[in-house]
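Re: the request from the purification team.
They wanted to know what the chain is likely to look like in 3D before they choose a buffer screen. I agreed to run a prediction and write the result into the notebook, where they can find it.
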Amino acid sequence: MLGPQTLVIREGKIADVRPGRTELPAGVKGIDLAGHTCSPGWTDLHVHLGNQSNPRAYEENFRLDPTDFVLRGVSYARKTLMAGFTSVRDLGGEVAPHLRDAINQGLIEGPRIWAAGKSIATTGGHGDPTNGMNSELAHLVGPPGPTEGVVNSVEDARQAVRQRYKEGSDVIKITATGGVLSYARSGDAPQFTVEEVRSVVETAQDYGYRVAAHAHGAEGMKRAVLGGVTSIEHGTYMTDEVMALMKQKGTWYVPTIIAGRFVADKAKIDGYFPELVRPKAARIGALIQGTAAKAYKAGVKIAFGTDSGVSPHGENAMEFIYMTEAGMPASYALQSATLFAAQVLGVDDQGVIEAGKRADVIAMPGNPVEDIRAVLGVDFVMKDGVIHKHVRDGAEGR
């Protein structure tokens, strides 16, 4: 942590960082954030801006129109930005590319988005859109294929990545194992072969994409790491063998502790989840924080992600608190959402406050290194040099 500094912002960039307070030339606007800690804007590497968990979520997928999810996403995107997250990686959902474009055009407020679009799954796996359909409806819809993100061979895998490119994705997500919230029995069984993962990764590299792998079970994680993915998401049943392999390959771990705690808590409520899902949520969700603690102690590289959309949008910063509860120093947790997150994305123009970088700057009263709960009080948000939030004497303005 540095002492008082003056940031000079020009044309969306940090033009200069000067020690202490600097006299401003006439006509230059100044913002006094004395008593605050300034940070690079945070990045959440795992969100779903088109959804938010609720007891009606499963039937809403059949009842609501795509427009309904887009309109909800507008609200979720703004909540995320106001919480201090100036960038996100949206890992699954057809809403995010459209939100990204609207935000980039200045039509709505929200974070900078790296959108995966439709995640890539296998038949019956986590992300197969026909899971839970009755036989008549499934027959009418027909078996999904690579266009819908469902693959069963290395050739399918290539086609699915190319389809994501055609649809404007920025990153690729695969579901390497079963999942908690999918309407299927297994929450951790492996669902891709190493060859299929490698086909996804190699094709993604052709388009400059990185690959994130949803994975709860150890065998699926192992195959994903061997196949060359950039990050493992959730990682519930991560073993010592997998941790060692991740360290060897340089694979990042994005724990999403808040989502695990959320689903474990909601599993206690009758009717919140379908009965097929409920035991998975109770069993798997409760373990993720412990896995994160073991992975950090083992030296696995950890970056920040929440799976918001499972947990509520706008509450993303609670993840920092859960990370410190898992034994990570506050400074490490904060870097996981700034410098480390930028490394996961493969960008070098954000994640630090220094001249030449994007003017993504947030501020909060107090010092989060000394009291991590300060992260819940972000009252200033600037993205690309534009102020989106500035609370003055209890009043919020731009």
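For the purification team: The CA atoms of residues 146 and 160 lie 4 Å apart.
Please add any questions underneath this entry.
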